[in-house]
Design a protein that fits this description.
The chain is built from six helices and 32 strands. The chain is mainly β. Among the domains are: about 210 residues, Immunoglobulin-like (Sandwich); about 140 residues, Sandwich (Immunoglobulin-like). Strands 21, 22, 24, 26, 27, 28 and 30 form a seven-stranded mixed β-sheet that branches. A six-stranded mixed β-sheet has the order 11-10-13-18-15-16. It is globular. The two termini are about 40 Å apart.
């Protein structure tokens, strides 16, 4: 995932599409509406008439531009168990000067950071405090075309993204449906040999997950213990950064799928629900930035002005050696752990640069690094410990298969409505009542993921087991990175990976982590079975 592809793209490759044209009209309407005071917007919009009685309103802390970076509340395990609660409810959120009314965890811009260790158990009492759904289920949900329609935005559930754990019962089971007005228990036990690193959680209820993630329903999970013998890393101050695309309609809400679907829906970018926060460092200081790809739809092509991005882990899995990058292509669902060493005193932009992912990725400032004060000489590590997984050898492979991502669009793309687009895996939209892939427990397989969609790169993600990427577009990958989410290039592009299907049976998902695409059908079930 180095930055070489970005050098081939630029503003000159912008393509006209239905989604960009549609959003142009939305943006024009917003131009006349949004200059009103935020309070006036909500005074003129009676939530109760929409069936959106939020109950007690939680006022999120103001987060205007250039304020110090705030990190979410931290909750830690005690005696081997992280026992906590999560409330799903509407809340007003002040983000970059905009007062928005969105779905949330705990009434805040993002959920709390959960910190635990390998071998420990995460126990959550989740309360769905959203109001009742305003829409009924689409008629005949057994029909795939109806299952691929976004629906019932107030149903939810819980996914521990990247965890190697059971996908069944009340563990990391994304087939559960947690409806408004009820409470649910979640009990996720990590194995003792689970990799330590940066993970995250988010809703995964089909039909509603896209809107909820776009609203900021996401939080980091830190499985502690990686790099314990590397003082250059353990002595570094940590920053948890949840990346997001801020989207909303003219009322400061997300109540219609058309608010999130256009390619140009993004109003601005944010970290931890703050617009362009300030990160302070002293000259020579090293910090560990844990980046979480909680943006709901698009890639970010990241740059920290006049600084290197020194990557030590991807997707919660430590690397065998540090990658020194100038830019980082960062997709939804991914994580990247960076060591940043502050340079000379000054102010430096942390930003998303232009990038062509089939349509222009969102651009603009994410934050500002302010380097000031007395020097704090620190060092970067010369070497990293042995990574947690052994490479998968040819002799281990027990089977191979190919999975194809594709999409359909109307003949007049720019005139089409979002319902006319379909996103497919192996020519079919998602159906939870169908098992698409069956893998025997203990199998070691090589998968080829092909993207025939001419318009978009896609982001392949699979639950429960990480994988080792061996090829991209037919080219052998020298780093052989372990991931749980990876970009599959468009228009016939492909990736090849190998994975060990270990420890857990049950049904889980593979899908595109561009959530618009997942919600509209680009997902399959995988069943790992035992004889």
């Amino acid at each position: 995932m180095r930055h070489a592809r970005g050098a081939e793209t630029g503003a000159g490759k912008v393509r006209l599409s239905r989604r960009r044209v549609l959003n142009g009209g939305t943006a024009l309407g917003a131009y006349f509406i949004l200059p009103r005071a935020a309070g006036a917007q909500h005074q003129g919009h009676d939530h109760s008439k929409m069936g959106l009685d939020p109950g007690p309103i939680v006022q999120a802390a103001a987060a205007s531009v250039d304020q110090p970076l705030l990190e979410p509340e931290v909750r830690r395990s005690v005696n081997g168990v992280l026992n906590t609660t999560l409330s799903c409810r509407y809340a007003y959120k002040d983000i970059g000067g905009q007062k928005l009314y969105l779905r949330s965890y705990e009434g805040t811009s993002h959920g709390p950071t959960l910190r635990m260790k390998p071998g420990e158990t995460l126990k959550i009492r989740l309360s769905n405090d959203f109001p009742p759904n305003r829409d009924a289920l689409p008629q005949n949900m057994a029909l795939p075309q109806n299952m691929a329609l976004p629906h019932q935005f107030n149903n939810t559930n819980f996914h521990f993204h990247g965890a190697h754990c059971s996908p069944s019962g009340i563990s990391d089971n994304v087939m559960r449906s947690m409806v408004p007005g009820k409470k649910y228990d979640i009990d996720i036990a990590l194995p003792k040999d689970h990799t330590s690193g940066t993970y995250w959680y988010h809703p995964h209820h089909h039909g509603a997950a896209d809107v909820q993630i776009a609203s900021g329903m996401a939080g980091a999970i830190i499985v502690e213990g990686d790099f314990a013998g590397v003082p250059e890393i353990t002595n570094a101050k940590e920053r948890v950064m949840l990346m997001s695309q801020v989207v909303y309609d003219s009322f400061g809400m997300i109540e219609n799928f058309s608010t999130v679907f256009p390619e140009t829906a993004t109003r601005f970018l944010a970290i931890n629900g703050q617009r362009r926060p300030t990160i302070t460092m002293r000259p020579g200081e090293v910090q560990r930035w844990r980046l979480v790809g909680s943006q709901y739809q698009d890639d970010f092509f990241l740059e920290l002005e006049k600084h290197n991005l020194n990557v030590i882990a991807y997707d919660g899995i430590p690397l065998r050696s540090m990658q020194e990058l100038k830019t980082l292509l960062f997709a939804p669902g991914q994580r990247a752990d960076l060591l940043v060493q502050a340079g000379a005193p000054g102010t430096y932009e942390f930003r998303a640069l232009p990038y062509d992912q089939g349509h222009p990725s969102p651009v603009g400032p994410l934050g500002r690094l302010v380097v000031a004060g007395d020097p704090m000489p620190m060092k970067l590590p010369a070497t990293l410990p042995k990574p947690p997984f052994e490479d998968i050898k040819d002799s281990e492979i027990t089977g191979k298969r190919t999975v194809t991502f594709s999409a359909t669009s109307p003949e007049a793309d720019a005139a089409g409505h979002w319902q006319e687009f379909t996103f497919l895996v192996d020519g079919k939209t998602f159906n939870p009542n169908r098992i698409d892939q069956r893998v025997k427990l203990g199998a070691v397989e090589e998968w080829t993921i092909v993207n025939t969609h001419f318009h978009d790169d896609h982001v392949f993600h699979i639950h429960t087991n990480p994988f080792q990427v061996t090829q991209v577009n037919g080219q052998r990958q020298p780093d052989l990175l372990w991931r749980d989410s990876v970009i599959v290039p468009r228009n016939g592009g492909s990736i090849v990976f190998r994975s060990r299907f270990l420890d857990y049976t049950g049904v889980f998902m593979l899908h595109c982590h561009m959530m618009n695409h997942e919600e509209m059908g680009m997902m399959q079930t995988v069943e790992v079975y035992k004889d």
